[in-house]
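[Automated response] Your request has been received and processed.

Submitted sequence:
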Amino acid sequence: MRVSLSSSFRVGKDAEATLEVQAETIAQLMVSLAEKFPNLREVLSSDVAVSIDGQIYRDDWTQTIPSGAEVYIIPRIEGG
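Generated structure:
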């Protein structure tokens, strides 16, 4: 699957905006990204949210990711 990173999560000026990983859930996505791209480990451990086809998930890392979904890693936004 292709995962796009918000510009605030890219590490280095030449960092890629879109990464290829294998995952069926958000939790697996985070593990796969951290294993495949160790320089992102610290970024992913901070407060992040995941957008899947426009739906934002902040706490439910068990959420499955459908095949062909549009996936973005974005900064977590707190509501009030």
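Summary generated for your ticket: The mean pLDDT is 85. The first helix runs from residue 26 to 36.
If you did not submit this request, please reply to this message.
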